[in-house]
Amino acid sequence: MRNIVLITWDSVRADHCSCYGYRKKTTPFLDRIARKGLRFENAIVSGVPTPISMGGILTGRYFEFGQKLTTTIAEVLGYEGYKTAAFHTNPFVSRYYGFNKGFDVFRDGIYDQENKSKIKNIGFISKFKNCINAIKYVFFDIDVARVDFEKYYDEVITLTHSSDYYFIWILLIDTHFPYTPPKLNFIEKIKLLYIYNKIYKGGGIYTRIVANIDSSNKRRLIDAYDGEIRYVDSLTEQLWNDLKDTDPILIVHADHGDAFGEHGFFGHPPEHYEYLIRVPLVIYNADVKGVVKEPISLLRLAPTICELAGVKNEFPQPSLLDDVEYTPPIVENKFKEGFRITVRDEEWKLILNPDREDELYNIKRDPMEQNNLIEDERDIVKDLRALAEKHLKTRKIQTKIGDRIRALKRFGKI
Ligand SMILES: [Zn+2]
After folding, report:
1. CA 88 to ligand 1 center in whole angstroms
2. Rounded to the nearest whole angstrom, what is the distance from the C-alpha of residue 107 to the centroid of ligand 1?
3. What Å distances lie between residue 11 and 76, 275, 388, CA to CA?
4. Which end of the chain is flanked by fewer CB atoms within 10 Å, N or C?
5. What's the pTM value of the predicted model, to 2 decimals?
């Protein structure tokens, strides 16, 4: 058995981390552990945004928002005698949505004392009050929708030093839109607020934005985002320094990326372009080292944690440390109109859309995903489409069996 720390950086795209080739030194700590540990060059999320991706990571299965969580990695490890705990402040993966399943300790910034009403307000806030929310946030460091993770810091350190074996999941949300990195001056804050207002007026961070954000403002927005990445990297380093005497395996990853005007998007709408689905993933202090180039799905994290903990893999996917036959990761989002399903191979990427024309990109030659080759590369489309259809068939069966089990449970049959 080994202690395990899973750290999620919210909304961090791989190409903004320096160990993934970013021109700015945003992640010196991640770079260092990546050099000594195992780094995945093409770690692909199972869906966008947070609850869909994290539901997938914690349960090892594709997940739909609002669905009940199936067996979680916390349950599996708890059953084996681990103390399990989670610390985060993202309302969409709070206990309100059942994400506390299997955790002995679950601090989500929502149900603690004065924050009880916050989850009820969040929908309202995100739709109508974002501008006021942003003013409070940017100028007064008051976040009406969440509390600071730092509030839990001492509890994390105490818990990890008083448990025989622990599994903790920490999600750091500073990198989530709207970004307010430390050390901004008053003028910079005003300018950022102006940009956030434009984005909210243009439709918000989950839709295509009609507002025109000019290049200097885009640069300002990106600088603020990079400043937040630098901050979560240093917070992760501080955590590591305070935990390393308990010799844990450290896993650092992101739940999805963020957009800066590419294809007209800001934030993280349920789209499958590279800036949204390709994230950092590093495993450190686990006697594994190197760089994995081939694309892998984050759905394989729970099985990997089982292997690192030395417990039986209870999940359908193989561990990332297993030498298995390669299959390209699949990304999935479900809508009223149907599924958006993406097959993301090393060179090619097929996006099957429920709401518009399907897309095929050669991501090696066209990393910005500008030239849709869906009409030109029929053979490649055919092969990738077959994988998507195979996936969809298993999904439909899973859903039906799940419904049946739920129905039986409801009637007390099992
Ligand atoms: Zn997120």
Report:
1. 11
2. 17
3. 27, 10, 26
4. C
5. 0.90
